[in-house]
Amino acid sequence: MSTKNTYSFFKGVERSFDKAAKFTRFSKGILEQIKACNSILQVKFPVRIGDQIEVIEAYRVQHSHHKLPCKGGIRFSMEVNQDEVMALAALMTYKCAIVNVPFGGGKGGIKIDSSKYTVSDLERITRRYTSELCKKNFIGPGIDVPAPDYGTSGREMSWIVDTYSSLNPNDVNAMACVTGKPISQGGVRGRVEATGLGVFFGIREACSIEEDMKKLGLTTGIKGKRIIVQGLGNVGYHAAKYCQNAGAIIVGLIEYNGAIYNEEGIDVDVAQAYRSKNGSLLNFPGAKNIEKAEEGLEQVCDILIPAALEAVVHAGNADLIQAKIIGEAANGPLTPEADEILNKKGILVIPDMYLNAGGVTVSYFEWLKNLSHVRYGRLEKRFSENRYAEIVNSVEDLTNKKISEKERKLILKGPDEIDLVHSGLEDTMMGSYQEIRDVWMNTPGVEDLRTAAFICAINKIGVAYEELGIFP
């Protein structure tokens, strides 16, 4: 039985924070400041829906101001409440610190079921929410920069940037008030797949360390690893797709209304198309049906990737998990009680606050692009291609051999925006994992990667507060 209804997500985050704080050098006062939510906005505003007026409940939380702007997504869900938004904002603070993105954490949410509204209704709700944020000074390129989250996409972000721009006509950087926008509205190529691709890079990096894999009884590398993915939304789909492309075997896929399992492997694209056509993964050809979605988490695999909502692995089912590695693509998919059970079982848990940081990393690239008012690659692409051509020509002259036209095109290609974005994301995820692992390996008493990740975040934020000199 799930404990989600009685579970405080924010208290769970605080519990993990307190566990890690004992391994840092900072005073109680600084630790309390890092942990606290700086600003919490709850608003209720009227919107005309058809012939009726509906009062919409919404939130925006700015968890930390140690660096500005604050950064975090906006979700549309009936599950939205203050506790959840505070927890997600706190995780954003620590997440940004871990991957060296200079933002404070923020998060927003509107308590609605998107499926019950027309596109026009959703636009009115989103624009009114944005105007409320503007009135309360909770949005701006240097103040607070939202992004897409569960239930939102580039469409909603384009409405937000348009509303903000109309209310702030003299802000030359208005486009940087939100990220995750369509490309035509100042978005960056590579943002859509960023979180899922970051999950892949993080899991691949973890699987590359022979010492850790040996303890789990696994070989290095992602190729051949059996993977179950829970949630085929944007994050889960791209994580599964990139893992599959790297040679992993997707043996299970889980959605809210059931799961499918095939030890021989499931093609992610075929399964996605089947679900779109039939409204469910169940009865997918060649796969076994699992009617209860939760039981899909308990099937045999090497890697489990929960990529939906929080608290899906809890005290009631943690002991039934058979995976050797859990990659937290969602925010808070494991409760603290589940964490303890899994750590005792020797399962390697790659924590959410690191693993799903691909979205905010590429959002940072988009924000920088908007502030600089220039597309990535525009300044260096042609220069790079000309330099590569000179090198190839020199080699051909020295060796008296010509390379094929196909090879020439491959070698001479300069970086496009998406190449630079993917490269920056890969470097971020690889470097950050090594930072966390170094803390894990070299701090006596630290037993898991989550605690190590919190220590990394607390150390960076604590130093920032000390250097700000805000404590009289």
Automatic annotation (TrEMBL):
User: Per its record, what are the GO molecular function terms?
Assistant: glutamate dehydrogenase (NAD+) activity; nucleotide binding
Spans through the membrane = none
Query: What SUPFAM superfamilies does the record point to?
Result: Aminoacid dehydrogenase-like, N-terminal domain, NAD(P)-binding Rossmann-fold domains
Give a yes or no for keyword Oxidoreductase in this entry.
yes
According to UniProt, where does the site described as Important for catalysis lie?
149
What are the protein's UniProt keywords?
NAD, Nucleotide-binding, Oxidoreductase
The residues annotated as the active site are: 107
Superkingdom to which the source organism belongs: Bacteria
Query: InterPro entries attached here?
Result: Aminoacid_DH-like_N_sf, Glu/Leu/Phe/Val/Trp_DH, Glu/Leu/Phe/Val/Trp_DH_C, Glu/Leu/Phe/Val/Trp_DH_dimer, Glu_DH, NAD(P)-bd_dom_sf, NAD_bind_Glu_DH
User: Which SMART domains does the protein's record reference?
Assistant: ELFV_dehydrog
Which residues take part in binding NAD(+)?
Answer: 195, 234
Pfam families associated with the record: ELFV_dehydrog, ELFV_dehydrog_N
- An example Gene Ontology biological process: L-glutamate catabolic process
Q: Where does substrate bind?
A: 71, 95, 363
Domain Glutamate/phenylalanine/leucine/valine/L-tryptophan dehydrogenase C-terminal spans what residues? 188-469
Family membership: Belongs to the Glu/Leu/Phe/Val dehydrogenases family.
Q: What's the protein here called?
A: Glutamate dehydrogenase
What is the protein's species of origin?
Sphingobacterium nematocida
- Cite the source lineage: Bacteria, Pseudomonadati, Bacteroidota, Sphingobacteriia, Sphingobacteriales
